[in-house]
Every structure is written in C-alpha cells, then in structure tokens.
Amino acid sequence: YARNNGRTTIKFSPGDFICCRTLQGHTGKVYSLDWSREKNLIVSVSQDGRLIVWNALTSQKYHAVKLPCAWVMTCAFSPGGHAVACGGLDSICSIYALSSQQERDGNLPISKTLIGHKGYISCCQYAPDREASLITSSGDGTCALWDSETCQRVAAFGGDSSSGRNADVTSVSINAANSHIFVSGSIDMTARLWDMRIASKSACVFYGHDGDVNTVKFFPDGLRIGTGSDDGTCRIFDTRTGHQLQVYMDPQDENQTASVTSIAFSYSGRLLFAAYSTGACYIWDTETAQTALDLGRQNGAHTKRVSCLGLAPDGSALCTGSWDQNLKIWAFDGQRKIV
Questions:
Q1: How confident is the model at residue 164, as a pLDDT?
Q2: Helices assigned H by DSSP within the chain
Q3: C-alpha–C-alpha distance, residues 315 and 268, integer Å
Q4: Going by C-beta distance under 8 Å and a sequence separation of 6 or more, which residues neighbour residue 165?
C-alpha cells in the first residue's frame, strides 16, 4: 500500500529527538509507567518497592509511596488523575488516592484493594471515560473488570476452555474510541479482543507471533491494534477482520532476538515506538515498516533493558523506563510539540 501510493519512510536525524529530562529517584529496576491525562504527571513503579508520582516538566517528586509488596509490575492513573492503581506478585490491585492525608511516616495509605485474582497482576488500565472502571490482567489467565468504588469484580474474561484463555495474560489496552472494547496479550502467543459487556467469549483472536505477546496497544483510530512479542517483532492487526496488516522486525541482529517489552503509537499513528530488552528503542514508520530512529543510540540513552514506555496524552513527549533505574523524557527537537 505504501509503495503503491508513493509513500517514503520518515527519517529523523540524531538531533531531532532529544532526551530533555532524566527522572532519577528509583533504586531498582523500573517496571511500569503511566501519564496522567491533563496535569503533566507521570507515575512509575520499580523493584525498589516504590511508587513515585513525578512532575514531567520539572522532575519534582510529588509522592514517593512505599508499597506493601516490592514486586510491583504495573501502574495506572485514573482518568481524572486523582488516584493511581498498581499491582504485582501479591495478586492484589491497590489504589491510592493522591489527595489522601499522609501517614506519620509520610506515606500515602491504601485507599482501595481489588482482591480476586489467583495469580500476579501483570497490567491494569482505567477506562478513559469512567473514573471507577478498571481492567486488570493476571497470571491466572484472566482479565477482570472492576468497580473501584465498591471494590467489586464486575466481570471476568477468559480462564476457561470455552474462551480458550488459560495462559498468563501479560497486557491489556482499552479502546479510547469505544471504552467497552479492550484487547489482551498472552504468553500463548495470541492477542484477543474483548467486549466488556460480553464476558463469555473473546470477539476475535489474533495469530501470527512465535513468542509470548508482552504488550498490546490500540491504534489511535480504534480499528487496529499493535502487539509486541518475545519473537522480536511488532505487528499490526485489523480488529474487524483479524488479519495481520504489518510486521516490524528488529533490524540489528538476525541471530540474536531482542524481546519487545512495550509499544506506543504517535498521536497520528504514523509512528510506532517500541522498547526492547537490549536497550534499543526504535521509532518505526508504521506504513513502510522501516525504522526512523533508534533512541537507544542517542546521547543520554538508557544503559539497560527498556522495560516500559508511554506517550504523553497530547502526543508531545515520550517517556521511557528502564532497568537502569531511570526514566527519560524525549521530545522532538527538545521541545514539547505534537509529532
């Protein structure tokens, strides 16, 4: 399609994307991050057992919460930015109200706990238009929809033979265009499309990967999904047909497969940001399947595995987190503008 329409690959020079800020404060591997929708805040969690809320513009730490379980794997802001959720090997999704009165030791108390999974919490995400609706994925092979106000599980997805989902679920992504629809990725090498209103069976199964699917993300138009896998590839699928549309293969070394750990799309969808276990972080042209730039080779790049990344809601900046204990904010030409 790209060739037939005369599309050429977008290319960036090393000076186009600049690491304009490094967020230092964690003393362990950073596992997950999320942006708030309106306030330029970032939340991150690390193997040091801390949840930190940062000001992305000033690097100031607003909160540094000591978690009851150090093995935390995921975190997410509520749509209004008033609360953060996190979970990990304790199989519990804990919610912190950022406006809560601090305890004597300066720590924030847990506001709510969502208990019901029988395996670790691998990912969590709030529905973008519903403050109390939260989706979690787990090592027990299920996803769950929660009402965070009542702490009740509203629905469970997968985990039995009828739906076919019985392997660890690694990632979830909610469709911003229709918040009742979400996609999940699993170690069974598939991604699955779900409707929150119909928990009995997945609406579509996406095949093609040869390794665990570590990360999933909806394309901006809500009609396609992106996936990243241990097989070293990212892929785009059409949610309407289930067909694979494009494959993005790590161009560095065919003999050494680098796992894809996290992905994000640019505001327009023309760019795909992909983090890798080798420390690489490619910017892909989604139409031509060619790399535009490797942030892993830039000045100020991470020195270890890039474990997570996320784009600011307005598309003006990218944040990456790494096992080198740091988060980095990248912007086009060092300035916050939509790319």
A1: 47
A2: none
A3: 9
A4: 141, 142, 157, 158, 159, 184, 186, 188, 192, 202
Residue for token pair 């694979």: 244
pTM value? 0.93
Which pLDDT belongs to residue 165? Answer: 52
Closest of 32, 15, 25 to residue 320, by C-alpha: 32
Buried b (16+ CB within 10 A) or exposed e, 205-218: ebebbeebbbbbbb
Q: How far apart are CA 29 and CA 31, in angstroms?
A: 6
* Length of the chain counted residue by residue: 339
Cα–Cα distances (Å) from 305 to 147, 169, 213, 286, 309, in that order, read 34, 21, 17, 23, 12
In a 3-state reduction of DSSP, which class is residue 86? Answer: strand
Report the C-alpha gap between 184 and 212 in whole angstroms: 12
User: How many whole angstroms separate alpha carbon 308 and alpha carbon 215?
Assistant: 10
Cβ within 8 Å of residue 253, ≥6 positions away: none
Give every residue of the chain whose pLDDT is below 70, as ranges: 1-3, 160-165, 252-255, 334-339
